[in-house]
Amino acid sequence: MVITISREFGSGGSLVGHKLAEALGIPCYDKTVEQLASVETGFTKEVVRSSEDKVPGPFAYANFYTNNTFLPVCDRIFIAQREIILRLVRHSDCVIVGRCAAEILKTEGIRPFSVFVYAPKDERISRTADKYQVTLAEAEKMIKKNDKARALYNKQYCDFEWGKAQNYDLCLNTTVGIDKAVKMIQLAVSE
User: Fold this and answer.
1) Residue 59: band (very low, low, confident or very high) from pLDDT cuts 50, 70, 90
2) Is the residue at 175 inside a domain?
3) How far is CA 154 from CA 44, 99, 103, in A?
4) Average pLDDT for residues 18-45, to the nearest whole number?
């Protein structure tokens, strides 16, 4: 069983993924993939973290030459994360949060149960402001920036329309509450 969680920024999707994994007694891979990619690529965790959800800019090709081609940092990190995700799902059942996991797995003939977690804008703003200790206006800017980056990242690396309901097995609004969202996913995967 492999469950992938894509999420709007501030929706609580990461928390849903971790609580779901705990309830199912399986590992959740979220920041773990980031840490493993850091080790595998030799980049610091900060470089890996800053490259995620970003598409290469015009200067991304300046410094890295691999296999006779220039390869931007974000591409190298995506390739490493892709390989890590494939290794993890071949090892055990798991929940994977973000990182284009569903589309990566589908290209390898692995059919995960894919979930998209979303929430109304006002709830996302409030949750983000509380979590990051920022103003509501700053939280709204963070949400716009991160959602745009996630959509571009998914399009760039998987030619996938992020957030479109037809692309997921289940879409959940966390207005129902994190614990209830977890129970709903559990029910869906147990059928």
Assistant:
1) very low
2) yes
3) 23, 8, 9
4) 86
Asked if 101 and 110 count as a contact pair (C-beta separation under 8 A), the reply is no
Q: Quick one: pLDDT at residue 57?
A: 53
Question: What pLDDT, on a 0 to 100 scale, did the predictor assign at position 60?
Answer: 44
Q: Where are the beta strands (DSSP E) in 61-159?
A: 65-66, 69-70, 94-97, 113-118
- CB distance 96 to 29 below 8 Å: yes
Host H or E run for residue 106: helix 101-107
* Number of compact structural domains in the chain: 1
Instruction: Compute CA distances 93 → 32, 89, 166, 182, whole Å.
Output: 15, 6, 24, 17
Report the alpha-carbon distance of residue 71 to residue 74 in Å, rounded. Answer: 8
Residue 190 covered by a domain: no
CATH (domain of 69): 3.40.50.300
pLDDT digits (tens, 9 = 90+) for 85-121: 999 999 999 999 998 999 999 999 999 999 999 999 9
149, 40 Cβ separation under 8 angstroms:
no
Contact 85, 101 (CB under 8 A): yes
> Is residue 188 included in any domain, yes or no?
no
- Report helix, strand or coil for 22: helix
Q: Coil, helix or strand for 42?
A: coil
